[in-house]
Input
Amino acid sequence: MTNTTRRQWLVAAIGLGIFVLAPWFLPNNMTQLVDLLVFILIALSWDILGGQMGYNSFGNIVFFGVGMYLLASIQVWAGGYSLAVYNSAHGGNLASFMVATPTFVASLLIGLLVVGVVNFLFALIVGSQLLKMRGHYFAIGTLGLGVAAGEFAATMDILGAGSGMNFIQPPRTLELAPLLYFVGLFAVAVLFVLLRWLYSTRFGYVMNAIRDNEDKAEAMGLPTASVKTFAWAIAAFFAAIAGGIYGSSKNFIDPTEVAFSGTTIGVWMLLMALMGGKGTIWGPIVGAVVFQLFKEFFWTFLFGWQRVALGLLIVIIVVFFPEGVMGGLDRLRRALGRAGKTGARA
Amino acid sequence: MSAPETMLEVSGVSKYFGGVVANEDISLSVRKGEIVGLIGPNGSGKSTLFGSICGSHPIDKGSIRYCGVETKTMRTGQIARLGMVRTFQQTHVYDDMDCVRNMLISSPVRSNGILSLLHKPNPDDLNRTEELLEFVGLASKRHLLAGSLSFGQQKLLEFAMALMNEPELLLLDEPTAGINPTLINGLIDRLTQANERFGVTLFVIEHNMRVMMNLAQQIHVLAAGRLIASGTQHDIQNDPKVIDAYLGGH
Output
């Protein structure tokens, strides 16, 4: 047991090392690298409910989008501007809203933390009601929440309504991508350590118990309701930070195409968890890496057919590898182990 | 010597599912330290009564008091945290976890807070897990997934999980159904031991009359949703209403 633990930490350390060095090896792919970290964050946080607790949420995109809008707004406020004035300006006029580098960086970092906390509380409130539903009802309920959030944002004039909202322009002297990258990497590292610990506590056990048999868990007196809402709140914290980073990196928020895009990012997050193997801590990470590689590959070499290729990939994975990469590895290891044992006996 | 205190007091409980009368005006009580049986033909409302007592569904009439506290408006979790736990007729275990984890999860939770959950399982729980798995004869299966066990083994596991929860009153819904006949004697023995050694009061639904006669000091009989007889084994065996309910009449 301790051996496995040590090996896992070793793998984690090597992985972290690769990620720390990546910007020096791939300086021209910073946007894709930031996307990758965002994907890891949303896949890993989706898996808290979807994998460990058996609650398939299509609603995490709400926290993602709210986080994005909130961070953009915080940065506008930090520059001393009014949100209404800022969002009614268009095109070249946006360049007249300037912020100094220290203000920009501070508002980004503190803003991300605020965004996380606000969404944590938001999820506690929404979750206390939505998590009373189970199974498909919960999935559909959260799906509705995501759609409603997008439509709502598209009507809010103060947020730029249907034409969306720009992030405030970063100062010219600031290299934004590396900053976002290392902030994202830090968030991934924190989430990984937090989840590793959480899944080994009774809290994690109760989440698994809810997945396997919620009626039994309730009958045994486990505090299922509060565990469910807190688990979702933790997911919301990181999904919102991911949204903030993603929006800042793209520099533009469209209410239904970027922020609350249930059909792309909202589905991708669970897809990545499925690809890697849901209900494991490594699955969503591996899934995000594999997904991002394939996505970039399709967009580069199969342009025009990229969405078809991605769709096919999804179908192939769900049909042939329902347990994902980690599940496949596990099966392989067991098969090898069995072969090894029979070999020894013979 | 004063009479042992009443633990569970069911008075005038009725439960209807639409037009179906599942329980009608049932009153009975369970005293501390007793083993009480509940028998009756299929569909007579035994499991419904358990569900009512444990808060699985609201009752239409009457009152249920556990250790003097009215529980009819409480939910299952709250009631379990008071120390009254049930097992199910169809097994309810956590399929995708091994036996040890099933046991560790079942250690008692006495508060609704989540802060008390943020720790790893303590050594006492691990020791108790080993002890109880040994007690029900599942020690050799401890690292198998609960879902891969046979029905009978799952029943034993569920019984061990219930004991892990350290209940004061344990409601068992057909503990021996589906269990290998040679194991049944062992199970009776363990139920008695749980009662004597761990001081757990038992309230048991059972179809196997041999088990019931070996186990329960006090037996209640349900038929068509009504309580038709209560008494000792001897009283029950000779009660014409009971014989009628089982052998004919309906």
Chain B has nine helices and ten strands. The CA atoms of residues 52 and 58 of chain B lie 6 Å apart.
